[in-house]
């Protein structure tokens, strides 16, 4: 028996999210189906660093699973990719110690969110950007990002549907906003993220970009710990799980 | 009755091509369905500059149609876009003289083809680039492009399935190949293009890029007028109908 860690990419547009569901095309389901074929009908359970919602993409999702299938590690990547649909791709497979756990051992995660700041729709960007037609003050959003860095209780910025029972304290190491032509890139690195946290933060940053709020409002919002103080969760297609870091990395 | 000319964009990935077909999702079908709704059940026939195959995209396809629906021209764009699916977008609507014809009046067309020159698959590029894993001599392909410019009989570079009965002579005004990191962009502007012509040319250019043929082979291939002398048609997802020009432009 060997434990394998995989880094996977997916275009979330045609999946009903990560989590396995009956009669739905999900990332978890597609991965286990490929593993089932490889293991001649023996079910192999995978564990991911976390779930992603319908429409959310991944450039560096991480999973682990145990296998009794004895092939050289170099062949795993090709064998799996041959069985997977073309919107789900295994970028790297490596053997890890038996104690490695893709969810419990996460040290750091990076999410990115992409906004297409144009009035005109773009059919080639509809699944990969959030099209936002109003003009934005980039410097105000950059200033707001600085208030997010550090250890805070993010209750205000987590979905009311969240089932997390533990602490809502998380540490953000990096929060940035960069403009490249009509494309705006937001990067967040942190110890972990609550359910919908990035998408709720982006909604507030866009309010600040429109000058409907001040950058320093972030401080008060964090202190008040109340989801009802902030607006809508932005749509999923701009969101990418970019990287997951572990102790061993 | 007014004649309207529209410039339309579409992401071809989820369409079964342009041409209307029973029980298939096509660009023609989606456009006429939207027009049927707008005209309260009255069928409105559209004419396009030409068809595109399944998987082929458009940044500047042109159609025309006649309508008795009396609304200001500025409202047409929004009214139509509201009724269209989000992978099909009307970029511009304008009133044209009754004698304008989207197919017969074409003066010039531009097609582009995008190659992703990497060994590793990219889930976000799979529908928009042709992934080509072998190294390419860009200068050789650029030299080959120069042999394509001018007026030639393109029989060698047209599909054997082509139903065109007339002359296979076409004039190419521009043929270029540009490398940008791992992305290779091919641009072709010409008086017109035969069925599959761009995709067959790209196949030969990639042979030349791999140094399996010389750039000057293009001359002999054109002279010999035989489709069997050249290789496979490259896949559709790298191809974009970029612009259609008319006398009036």
From TrEMBL, chains A, B:
Q: Which reaction does it catalyse?
A: uridine(38/39/40) in tRNA = pseudouridine(38/39/40) in tRNA
Enzyme superclass (EC): isomerase
Catalytic-site annotation from UniProt: 53
Which InterPro entries does its entry note?
A: PsdUridine_synth_cat_dom_sf, PsdUridine_synth_TruA, PsdUridine_synth_TruA_a/b_dom, PsdUridine_synth_TruA_C, TruA/RsuA/RluB/E/F_N
Question: Does the UniProt entry include the keyword Plastid?
Answer: no
Keywords of the record, alphabetical order, are: Isomerase, tRNA processing
State the Gene Ontology terms under molecular function: tRNA pseudouridine(38-40) synthase activity
Q: What is its EC number?
A: 5.4.99.12
Q: Which residues bind substrate?
A: 111
Q: State whether keyword rRNA processing applies.
A: no
Which is an annotated Pfam family here?
PseudoU_synth_1
Q: Which HAMAP family match?
A: TruA (MF_00171)
Q: How does it assemble?
A: Homodimer.
Instruction: Name the protein family.
Output: Belongs to the tRNA pseudouridine synthase TruA family.
Q: What does this protein do?
A: Formation of pseudouridine at positions 38, 39 and 40 in the anticodon stem and loop of transfer RNAs.
Which NCBIfam families is this protein grouped with?
A: hisT_truA
Official protein name in the record: tRNA pseudouridine synthase A
Q: Which organism is it from?
A: Virgibacillus tibetensis
